[in-house]
Amino acid sequence: MVRCRNPHAGAGCVTGGSIERREQDEVRDWPANVCPWVSGYPPIATPDGKLVVYRVPTVEAPATRHAVVNRRGRVERQIAMPASEAILGFGRKSVYVVTTKDDTQTISRRPWP
């Protein structure tokens, strides 16, 4: 069970394995700035010079998401993956993904882009 330490930290919080929804008017004290990435999930460089940035899951988008940022600093696209998957790194024409299932992790290689 995960408890909300700050009930005003977002539009929903996890309690006992379920998501408690709040009306938008109940959410107070939104931060002026939000960290561009989460600690432990730094941006990953691709072989073609782009950055893949892990996006923080939200109540509306709980899947694992990454933004692909080009050399001009523009988001080219977003990658959505199941919550059980994460990008580990890149090869010349591959992306390496770790999948967690039943306390077992496996690494797979997938084509990139």
Could you walk me through the main structural features you see in this protein, from its secondary elements to its overall organization?
The chain has strands at 12-15, 18-21, 44-45, 51-55, 64-69, 75-81, 85-90, 94-101, 104-111. The chain has 113 residues and is mostly beta strands. The chain has two domains: 1-32, no CATH class; 35-111, no CATH class. The radius of gyration is 16 Å and the shape is globular.
List keywords for this structure.
113 residues, 2 domains, three-stranded antiparallel sheet, 9 strands, 0% helix, globular
Low-confidence stretches: 1-19
Report how far apart the termini are. 38 Å
- Secondary-structure element sequence? EEEEEEEEE
In which range does the helix fraction lie? under 10%
Computed CA radius of gyration, to the nearest angstrom? 16 Å
**DSSP strand count:** 9
